[in-house]
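Try this one yourself first.
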């Protein structure tokens, strides 16, 4: 079973075990925790059985699981820059703010309990701390500086207004730093992947250890998509708009007149 539609069928059908579901999508663990369902030691029970045993509303539990299963493909290149920015904040910046403290706590626990037998764990924790500190600073800067500039020039284009160029620094000038920070994050993610042997937990790993690896793998996937949306769609489209509005020429002209 490897497609979302098969997984959705298995949830609707309810014969699949709770433990199997968590092994296929660790995000389901949050739903089971919410409903007081043991997905760890007592997880070898079919979904329908545990729902019946706990007298839960079947549709409610299954809908919660299905909402984490469905994946809608979106054409990001057709979005306005403002909507794309809101999407990035909602799907990626909020994700980082919510998940970094959770992963940090799990890594801390795993490094403390298993650090003796697995000497790479303190290093893994330190790299994740560096990466998360960098990312939080980075996204705060994007929201307070870069995204505001992009939304501003897009609104000027929409309302056919001439942007105020007094003190304006070209986006190209700004974007280089953001792209460098993306590269640094990518390098730290690659180190995490290497240290965790591609997110393969050791044979003696406990549930928290395994959940932590899944969280890190998801963190990598989310961050790669985040950086892709910015580097390959948002930033080039914003630069194009800047060129169209004549802002780059104005800036270069100013630099020449200095
Ligand atoms: Fe971002
Ligand atoms: Fe970014």
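Now uncover the answer:
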């Amino acid at each position: 079973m490897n497609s979302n539609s098969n997984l959705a069928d298995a949830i609707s059908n309810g014969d699949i075990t709770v433990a199997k579901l968590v092994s296929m999508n660790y995000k389901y663990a949050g739903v089971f925790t919410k409903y007081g369902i043991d997905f760890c030691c007592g997880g070898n029970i079919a979904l329908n059985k545990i729902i019946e045993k706990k007298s839960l509303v079947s549709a409610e539990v299954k809908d919660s699981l299905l909402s984490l299963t469905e994946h809608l493909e979106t054409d990001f290149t057709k979005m306005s820059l403002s909507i794309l920015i809101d999407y990035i904040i909602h799907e990626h910046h909020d994700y980082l703010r919510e998940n970094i403290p959770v992963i940090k706590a799990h890594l801390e626990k795993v490094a403390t309990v298993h650090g003796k037998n697995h000497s790479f764990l303190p290093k893994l924790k330190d790299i994740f701390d560096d990466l998360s500190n960098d990312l939080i600073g980075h996204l705060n800067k994007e929201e307070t500086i870069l995204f505001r500039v992009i939304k501003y020039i897009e609104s000027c284009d929409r309302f056919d207004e001439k942007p105020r160029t007094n003190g304006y620094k070209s986006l190209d000038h700004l974007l280089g730093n953001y792209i460098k920070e993306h590269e640094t994050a990518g390098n730290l993610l690659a180190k995490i992947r290497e240290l965790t042997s591609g997110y393969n937990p050791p044979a003696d790993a406990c549930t928290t250890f395994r959940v932590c690896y899944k969280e890190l793998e998801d963190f990598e996937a989310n961050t790669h998509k985040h950086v892709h949306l910015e580097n390959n769609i948002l930033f080039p489209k914003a630069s194009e708009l800047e060129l169209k509005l004549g802002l780059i020429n104005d800036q270069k002209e100013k630099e020449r007149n200095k």
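Discussion: The chain has two domains: 4-67, 76-257. The chain has ten helices and no strands.
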